[in-house]
Write a structure and sequence with these properties.
Glutaredoxin; 5 helices; 16% strand
Length: 104
């Protein structure tokens, strides 16, 4: 039986309100961008986000890039919708838009 990675990703992002696909974990990030993304969520008051360590599963790592048609990790999803990567998160964090989105 072959694995349906796109369905797994869809199920992950629709079963949790906030999902961050990242390299490593929030406690032990494995790249600066992933570390910054997790920190931005925490700074915005979101401590209960789900994280997916893409380094633990190469099929998820490649599949999430296809899912959002976004070539880089980290990737943030809120309410099942793709928000963006670290640069977009940084802009949204600085403008207050990320905090507002997380409050809704």
């Amino acid at each position: 039986m072959s694995r349906d990675v796109q369905k797994e990703i869809h199920d992950l992002i629709t079963s949790q309100r906030v999902v961050l696909f990242m390299k490593g974990t929030p406690q032990f990030p494995q790249c600066g961008f992933s570390s910054a993304a997790a920190q931005m969520l925490k700074t915005a008051g979101c401590d209960d986000f789900a994280s997916v360590n893409v380094l633990a599963d190469n099929e998820i790592r490649e599949g999430v890039k296809q899912y959002a048609n976004w070539p880089t990790i980290p990737q943030l999803y809120i309410n099942g919708e793709f928000v963006g990567g670290a640069d977009i998160m940084r802009e949204m964090s600085q403008s207050g838009e990320l905090g507002a989105l997380l409050q809704n």
